[in-house]
Amino acid sequence: MEIFAAQLLNGLSLGSMYVLLVLGFNLMLLVAKIIQFAYPHLVVLSMYVCWGVLRHTDNMLLVVLASVASCIVVNVAIEPIFRLLAKRHGLDINVSFVVSMSMALLITDVMSHLLNYGYPIAFPTEWVGKSIFSSGLIAFSAGQAYALFGGIAAVAAFFYLLYRTRQGRVLRAISENSLLSSIIGIPIIKTRVLSYAIAGLLGGLTAVMFARLLGSASPGLGDFVGMKVVAASILAGLGNLKGGLVCGLLLGIAESMAIGYLAGSWSNAIAFMMMLVIMLIKPEGLFGIEA
Amino acid sequence: MKKSSMLKVEGVSVSYGPVRALENISIEVDRREIVALIGANGAGKTTLLKAILGVQKVQSGKVLFLGDDITNSSTDKVANMGLGLIPEGHLVFSTMTVLENLQLGAYHNPQDFNDNLENVFESFPVLRKRIHQTAGTLSGGEQQMLSIARTLMSKPELVMVDELSLGLAPKVVSEIFDILGDLNNKGYTILLAEQNAKKTLEFANRAYVMETGRVVLQGLTQELMSHPEVRRAYLGSNV
Amino acid sequence: MSPVLYYFLSFTGINILMCWSLYLPYRVGQLHYLTVACMLASAYFSGFAAREWSWPFALIVVVGILIGILICLIPSFAIGDAPCFTVVIIGLTIIFILKTAVENSPALGGTIGFFGIPQVNHLLPLTYLLVVYAGAVIYRIDHSRLGRAASVVFVDKNTAAALGIDVKRLGMFFQVAAGALAGLAGTLYAFLIGGLFPEFFNLGVIGTLMCMLFAGGHTTMWGVIVSVPILEGMQLLLPSAIASWRQVIYALTLIVIVLVLPGGLVTKRMLLRLKGKVSGGISKCNN
Known about the structure:
The structure holds three protein chains of three kinds.
Chain A: H1 2-31, H2 39-54, H3 60-77, H4 79-89, H5 93-114, E1 121-122, H6 125-128, E2 131-135, E3 138-141, H7 142-164, H8 166-176, H9 178-183, H10 188-214, E4 216-217, H11 221-236, H12 241-261, H13 264-281
Antiparallel strand pairs in A: 1-4, 2-3
Chain B: E1 5-16, E2 19-30, E3 34-38, H1 45-53, E4 60-65, E5 68-69, H2 75-80, E6 83-86, H3 98-105, H4 113-123, H5 125-129, H6 140-152, E7 158-162, H7 170-185, E8 189-194, H8 197-203, E9 206-211, E10 214-220, H9 221-226, H10 228-233
Parallel strand pairs in B: 3-8, 3-9, 6-7, 7-8
Antiparallel strand pairs in B: 1-2, 1-4, 4-5, 9-10
Helix pairs in contact in B: 3-6
Chain C: H1 3-26, H2 34-52, H3 57-79, H4 84-103, H5 123-142, H6 145-155, H7 157-162, H8 167-193, H9 203-216, H10 223-237, H11 240-243, H12 246-260, H13 268-275, H14 280-286
Helix pairs in contact in C: 1-5, 1-8, 1-9, 1-10, 2-3, 2-4, 2-8, 3-8, 5-8, 9-10, 9-12
């Protein structure tokens, strides 16, 4: 029972990270009509930025700013590539996947060549933080608290932006019908760039929280997280934001449970196996495709 | 009534790949007029409206709106200048509420939102009752009204309507035509593309008759209604 | 034969087979990365059967192909007509699961790798014979009723269904055919290279194959015959300092090709011009 409670807590903090990544991924899918497979890789890149900044200062605000800025800048900088792609191929999400997968490979390879000689990076122990609560097997670290509560706050802010503000309304309008949106005078390209920027903002925040949660990162982390994030979005139904919320959390919990109850090296395979079974049974996702 | 040209299309041609959709089209709409484009399905009416709005690329010719050259300008810019299109098939953002649809319509005109909303509700009282309902749950006629109302929220100089009557019951169509008449009385200029020639000719001041991408006839609607060719092809010969 | 030339010829043959196995399902618009899992499974099976059980080569080839078919056949009942992107992720997931299984099996060498696969005489010429044979089969498929149906499905599934094409069964057929090719490629890989590492079967190898397929041109089977030797040769000819960046080079090449030459180097239109005649409805569907 204690293992269960401990892993549930772990799973919720890990899951809230997945949720943020799924939301950013789906936002670009809905508004810009692309599959940005390299999005989690960009987040890992921002974790490296956090690490670099931390070597010079331990000012939390600076770290967050650097992480967010780098993620936004890179994500917005690749937007013209996808715009050109749409001009060449039409809005074909499969071609956008081919391109973004190449970007993912590129980012991973650059990280493993240039950053820390390709070795995994470790964040300072005080960055992950001491245990702020413990009882028996249950231990709740500061890093987990940041991930969980930061995650909840970021998700709440995201949904507020999308459903309660003027810009959010415009983003939803384009995701539903971009032609009609342009007819009523909504600037499509500007709004698409905005969606990249918002995803970048979410990604930068996620990078900081992920760094505090995991305490380390490696060039291969992007592929790993990327596959899980994308699989969770497919499980939910591509483009389904609320479904993504559920599936992201479920994935985090399932993975933590597998870690808690099974031999280490198999835990990820089990998580993937579960996803695989659901995807094979329901290729359209549990909550329906909305892209 | 002061007469001044609001929209001027000069010799516009449009092709879809190797297929010519519009051939050297010229039309003109003056302030406070109701102008109709009539013609069968595929005559190029929708293409012309899309070309004016910049949705469809124009190969040659010019589009002037309020004296400015808007040929091949970006759609959002043209819409911002005061050109409103009510697209075919009563298109609304069906996952959003009526209010949100109207707020989107006011994207470029958020200043006197509440006044505009009151004006729109005056013309379409049924929308007031449905304000928090999801647009997808409205009836076809209500969706068409919402589509018009959404366009009016931007206070357009010229309202273009594409296939107003398509898929709607005759009673609803009459109701919406009445509302458009009211709007014209309030000062709106209207360009109407319709297959339903009889109703449209009764309603408009002037009309252009289109066939396979060309304007074949034009003139005041009273004159057109007595034109033998129009009577034969569009009104049924024994009208 | 110098080792460099041997590796060049081996990898070129294997990669042409693997590119074809990606090309076939892409005829119906699916990026079927599951074939890399087929390659992994049949490579490890072949290595194990040859070293531990001393099976004859011919039998191993047949069983290797069957393994490829089986791995593609079972999921194809679910994903024969699934959206492209779901197929992608299911492929990646199965690759990952198989890789984890290998890494945790001491009998297969775990993460260290599996070595000591016995050599087969005249394997290189035999490989190219098999490549030519596979090419002939693919040519027949491409120019059959199935190939024409696939061209319609690629453009629009709904139109295809309206024309009476069973989209799902067609997708299943192409997926299974891809599995057979990948199974063959896996077996040849095990014998040609002589050693297997689980780390080889990662996103990188998929990126390499995608680069080869799209650079050569995904609309015909001939493109990869041009692009694979060029891209394989390039990494051997480049100085090693630059060659270690080959992943980056492949990724950049793929991005640039998709943006600048949407159809790749060899397109259907080009072939038709070569033939000097413009024929039939298939080309209209594809171009």
